[in-house]
Amino acid sequence: TWKWVVGPMFLYLCERLVRFWRSQQKVVITKVVIHPFKTIELQMMKKGFKMEVGQYIFVKCPAVSKLEWHPFTLTSAPEEDYFSIHVRIVGDWTEGLFNACGCDKQEFQEAWKLPKIAVDGPFGTASEDVFSYETVMLVGAGIGVTPFASVLKSIWYKYCHDAINLKLKKIYFYWLCRDTHAFEWFADLLQSLEAQMLERNNAEFLSYNIYLTGWDESQATHFVVHHEEEKDVITGLKQKTLYGRPNWENEFKTIAGQHPGSRIGVFLCGPESLADTLNKQSISNSEADPRGVHFIFNKENF
């Protein structure tokens, strides 16, 4: 038995030693940004840290807990000189981090008073392959939108600096959420991208649809009253928010008709039930002919 056990145990110990060594490397919090609805953004720097789009890290804050590690998706782009995460305050640990960073105080917080942070990672995800396709569908559900913040930022940087060599030509982005207000920081990112694309006369590069899956009667009345306004009453974007859930069969057929003979990457960060639906649609809408359209499904579940 020991011959079968010693190998895996050795590899496990090596992995633990590497994690311990990486967790001891110094991490500097350069900026803490407080977003609406108790969401904070931590911008950090670490020597030798290299990331790709859509990756995630494990974070430990000894001031909150000396043992707990929590995974967070990186929301910064590889082209930026820092890496960042967005943390929504929904539990004891995140509440402790919120207070440790001085976000519960009104006065300006000195940098030296910020807590020490340990970071392990980054670790890869399916989203890294987004630049391998000319056309992609990005589907984020709720908090699953965070990996695509990194993707969209990186695409914008690449587009600004070297658009000729960028293989990716078209993005279809879908965001399904019960309450967009909880992720206003992401709506701000979309507003910025929308404005910059219009300035460069390439508004067709990014097509996005925001689906609100939960609302009450008073909200519905407010939506109707302001429906004719130029910008959406919820997100402030030119693209109006849609209500309910998308008809995925129609969406796939429309995209397949617009891009015949293409390999289209479908990237999801969301629940398993949605993954099953998109996987079935990817298979049913892909043609048997190798020269026809093919949907390649990639997923991250939570």
TrEMBL record:
Record's GO cellular component terms: monoatomic ion channel complex; NADPH oxidase complex
Domain of life of the native organism: Eukaryota
GO biological process entries: defense response; monoatomic ion transmembrane transport; superoxide anion generation
GO molecular function: metal ion binding; superoxide-generating NAD(P)H oxidase activity
Pfam families: FAD_binding_8 (PF08022), NAD_binding_6 (PF08030)
Keywords associated with the record: Cell membrane, Electron transport, FAD, Flavoprotein, Glycoprotein, Heme, Ion channel, Ion transport, Iron, Isopeptide bond, Membrane, Metal-binding, NADP, Oxidoreductase, Phosphoprotein, Transmembrane, Transmembrane helix, Transport, Ubl conjugation, Voltage-gated channel
Membrane topology: Multi-pass membrane protein
Reaction catalyzed: NADPH + 2 O2 = 2 superoxide + NADP(+) + H(+)
Cofactors: FAD
SUPFAM superfamilies xrefs: Ferredoxin reductase-like, C-terminal NADP-linked domain, Riboflavin synthase domain-like
Record has Membrane as a keyword: yes
Ubl conjugation as UniProt keyword: yes
Matching InterPro entries: Cyt_b245_heavy_chain (IPR000778), FAD-bd_8 (IPR013112), FAD-bd_FR_type (IPR017927), Fe_red_NAD-bd_6 (IPR013121), FNR_nucleotide-bd (IPR039261), RBOH/FRE (IPR050369), Riboflavin_synthase-like_b-brl (IPR017938)
Domain FAD-binding FR-type: 19-129
Function: Catalytic subunit of the phagocyte NADPH oxidase complex that mediates the transfer of electrons from cytosolic NADPH to O2 to produce the superoxide anion (O2(-)). In the activated complex, electrons are first transferred from NADPH to flavin adenine dinucleotide (FAD) and subsequently transferred via two heme molecules to molecular oxygen, producing superoxide through an outer-sphere reaction.
Full protein name: NADPH oxidase 2
Organism: Urocolius indicus
Gene designation: Cybb
